[in-house]
Amino acid sequence: MSFSTDWLALRAPFDTAARDPGLERDLAAWARQRTATSGQPLRVVDLGAGSGNNARHLGPRLDVPQRWTLVDGDRTLLA
Predict the structure, then answer these.
(1) CB–CB of 64/41 below 8 Å?
(2) CA-to-CA distance for 14 and 74, rounded, in angstroms?
(3) CA-based end-to-end distance of the chain
(4) What is the DSSP string of 26-49?
(5) How far is 24 from 38, CA to CA, in rounded Å?
(6) pLDDT, tens digit, for every residue of 5-57?
(7) Residue 40, by phi and psi: left (phi above 0), alpha (psi -120 to 50) or beta?
């Protein structure tokens, strides 16, 4: 299945509204503790990444060094 970049752009604000801020805070706290303990960047794999909305949304909120791998079957969206 393929989605257009226009449709994904329209969907992005609804995805943001549906996210749980408490869960994001818990994830950020875990990420800080994990990276402090390991000394390594947080590695994140986003399956079905589409145009990368998860990375754009969560990346700044995690506030730790990160290395994202975006995986999607649609190369156009990943570009």
Answers:
(1) yes
(2) 22
(3) 17
(4) HHHHHHHHHHHHH-SPEEEEEET-
(5) 21
(6) 888 888 889 999 999 999 999 999 999 999 999 999 999 999 999 889 999 99
(7) beta
